[in-house]
Structures are given as structure tokens and as C-alpha cells.
Amino acid sequence: MAIKTISYLELTPEQRRDGARMARERLRLLSANPFLTPEQHAQIAEQMVHLDHWESGTLAVKLVAPR
Fold this sequence. Notes:
The chain has helices spanning 13-31, 38-56. The protein is elongated and about 45 Å long.
């Protein structure tokens, strides 16, 4: 049986919005840790920006050829 691979763009905007909301909540909880280093805070900030692009559908899609 074949495995179907889908792009995140095949999700509805509502599904992306809900997924982004849950991921943002996790990242906010992580960023509240007072023991994080500046590098760790920067990495979380980068992940938030990536998440914004994912939610809006503006990430580049890597196409994979079927096998």
C-alpha cells in the first residue's frame, strides 16, 4: 500500500491556524523559562517567525518526486 505525502498547503487555513495556535502556546511556555540562554531565546524567536510563515502559507515547499 502506498503512502501519500501531502504538503502543509493542502491543510485548510483553519487547520493551519489551529496548529499554529497550539505550537505558539508551547513556544510561549518554553520562552518563559528564566534559565534560557540568549541563544535559546533567539532560537525560539526564529521558530515563532517560521511558525508565522507556516500559518500564512508562505514557506517554500520542497517537492519530492514519487518513487
